[in-house]
UniProtKB/TrEMBL annotation:
Gene source species: Dioscorea zingiberensis
Stretches assigned to the GOST seven transmembrane domain: 174-377
The UniProt record lists the keyword Membrane: yes
A GO cellular component annotation in the UniProt record: membrane
CAND6/7 N-terminal domain span: 26-158
Pfam (any one): CAND6-7_N
Annotated localization: Membrane
Keywords: Membrane, Signal, Transmembrane, Transmembrane helix
Primary location recorded for the protein, binned into one broad class: membrane
Protein name: Protein GPR107
Ranges in a coiled coil: none
Membrane topology per record: Multi-pass membrane protein
Endpoints of the signal sequence: 1-23
Length: 440
């Protein structure tokens, strides 16, 4: 039987999913699986939305040698829907019901059980949704002493005004347009950056070319995301746009952290080389980004029904946190080096400008990374399914970060890294002395 412990674990799983599930038409193979509950989909339905579940090649076998197949009860294994609003009620019911099975709960919607199987071990059921809500489609096996093997095809969609199928959940329907809008923003940003680099080619550094590559891959990733969702919305399949999305996302992720690390080290601005410890940071961040992108592909392509889905989520989050922590070290080292240099090289004003800029860069990087990864994730988890289109607040916060970085580190003749007027030296020395007096 499904225990309250399993139900609570499932609730945590639902909260741990990084992004709302897209209801692509999915085919999933379950092999010798004894899990008491398997989450297949989460979907925000409108009234009149449709659900179709088809299973074939269904088999069960004893998980333990002492168990006989004749003891298998076909009515205790099957698919059901749970409106998200009913989760607290179901958990409460499971706490007070001996040998609780979610298939018999008053708060679940029956889809099919193995009792409905035909002679060729297959079954197909379709439901119409009467009550708008976000629903979870689950398979329940209330006989954990048996392993289950089956092929599952799921199709969830809303019906639009013209009677066509819309495979995006309610809260995600505006997202393709939002992504395309952000693509235009970043494309314009990239063209402006190219114009600035061409205009200031005499002060152009290698880092500026890397920054331009970051903008290009960011724009390409967004347009692929928009096309991916548009195809899913109309047909239930991304038609290959997901592959392009992952490829451009891979390069964008590597370039983002590389740019932060290189700017943090002062490479190409303050010095033409990287120190050994700074190279080690890049050698940590780049492989970590490869692992993170592999985890993102697995998460996006397999879905929560896979046994290792939660593990890959944990890998993604852990690697992301490691990368975020690693990029802080070069910035801290540069701040420390500038403070020490200000006491010895007689260029107080120049070092004060650099020090101020690095401190601002550090604050912005910390705010950006923690805002997009912690605050927004918690915020979106609390939102109603109807307003999931605001998950791109993570996307909306990024242009501000990019604008700060690209504006402050653009190729200009009198960059605070490279130029300072002599008349500002005396005031800067006093500011640095005062800062040192307050340092612990």
């Amino acid at each position: 039987m499904a225990t309250p412990h399993h139900l609570k674990l499932l609730t945590l799983l639902l909260l741990s999913i990084l992004s709302p599930t897209l209801a692509e038409i999915k085919n999933t193979h379950i092999f010798s699986d004894a899990r008491p509950m398997i989450l297949f989909e989460q979907f925000g339905f409108l009234r009149g939305g449709r659900l179709s579940v088809s299973i074939s090649n269904v088999h069960w076998s004893p998980a333990f040698a002492a168990t006989s197949t004749s003891n298998f009860n076909t009515s205790l294994s099957g698919f059901f829907l749970i409106p998200n609003a009913f989760y607290p009620l179901i958990i409460n019911e499971s706490d007070y019901t001996p040998h609780f099975c979610p298939l018999s709960s008053h708060y679940t919607i029956h889809v099919l059980t193995f009792s409905d199987l035909t002679t060729n071990r297959s079954c197909e059921r379709a439901l119409s949704i009467d009550m708008p809500d976000e629903y979870s489609l689950l398979f329940g096996n209330c006989q954990p002493m048996f392993d289950v093997t089956m092929d599952v095809r799921t199709e969830l969609y809303n019906v639009d005004a013209g009677g066509g199928k819309d495979y995006l959940p309610l809260g995600r329907r505006p997202v393709p347009k939002l992504y395309f809008g952000f693509f235009l923003v970043y494309l314009l940003f990239f063209l402006v950056w190219v114009w600035v680099c061409c205009k200031q080619r005499n002060t152009l550094e290698k880092i500026h070319l890397v920054m331009g590559g970051l903008l290009l891959f960011k724009a390409l990733k967004l347009v692929c995301a928009a096309e991916d969702l548009w195809h899913v919305k109309r047909t239930g399949s991304p038609h290959g746009w997901d592959v392009a999305f992952y490829i451009f996302g891979f390069f964008k992720g590597i370039l983002l952290f590389t740019v932060i690390v290189l700017i943090g080290t002062g490479w190409s601005f303050l010095k033409p080389y990287l120190q050994e410890r700074e190279k080690k940071i890049l050698m940590i961040v780049i492989p970590m980004q490869v692992i993170e992108n592999i985890a993102a592909v697995v998460i996006g392509e397999t879905g929560p029904a896979e046994p290792d889905f939660l593990t890959w989520n944990q890998i993604f989050l852990t690697v992301d946190i490691i990368c975020c922590a690693a990029v802080f070290f070069p910035i801290i080292w540069s701040i420390k080096n500038l403070r020490e240099a200000s006491k010895t090289d007689g260029k107080a004003a120049r070092n004060l400008e650099k020090l101020t800029l690095f401190k601002q860069f550090y604050v912005v990087v910390v705010s950006y990374l923690y805002f997009t990864r912690i605050f927004l994730s918690a915020f979106v988890a609390m939102l109603s399914y109807k307003y999931r289109a605001v998950t791109p607040p993570r996307k909306r916060s990024k242009p501000g970060f990019y604008l700060f970085v690209f504006y402050n580190f653009q190729p200009v003749e009198k960059n605070p890294y490279l130029y300072i007027g002599e008349e500002e030296e005396a005031a800067a020395r006093g500011a640095l002395e005062m800062e040192d007096s307050f340092e612990l």
